[in-house]
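Final report, section 2: Outcomes. Of the targets proposed, Ribose-5-phosphate isomerase A is the one most frequently requested by collaborating groups, and we therefore present its record in full.
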Amino acid sequence: MKTTGGTDDQKRRAGERAAELVTDGTTVGLGTGSTAAFAVRAIARAVDDGLDVRGVPTSFATRELAREEGVPLVALDEVETLDLAIDGADQVDDDLNAIKGGGAAHTREKVVDAAADRFVVVADPSKTATTLDRAVAVEVLPDARTTVAARLRELGGDPTLRRAERKDGPVVTDNGNLVFDCEFGPIDDPATLSSDLSAIPGCVEHGLFVGMVDEVYVGTDDGVEVRTRG
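The predicted structure is given below as tokens.
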């Protein structure tokens, strides 16, 4: 379930501004989605100009884009730490908690983003909100989909198995799992919900990113608004 909204110019401003954080010798997590793609392309142009960087992609799509654009890549297990991660979000609240998973890449995104010393979200204004209220993506083991769905309902959620576009059947993640989009309404306590979701057996990962984001770069019609934690 990909989210829409915002203009390409807004997304480009956010992505390109965040790409300016990448300095010589940086190992950077490369996020997934349309706004993060602008950052990947900007980093590639800097590489063409001689910048020495290594990128760690968060999805198959990002890996393909980075290869096409000429960004040198390494696997996450080949590095001890990441200096920076730049990634998009489906929604970010006033406390810089985020919902991700519109592209079904949130499991690897969370691993990469959590490993970075600095995690910057790039977004357009349509992705900002006072309180998170979008559906939360929950990646599940295929055999556990029934029991996980029941537990999600016990937590007050309304889970829907994500269906693939232009093919029969459900979406299958890069990890070979299924995805529920779970509506909870306004999420007043993201930290508690995050812990409850993580405790469900068969839940591989969920799209709530709580206490992880260091900064948000919001592209606007005439610039970039930078939001920082605290």
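DSSP finds six helices and 13 strands in the chain.
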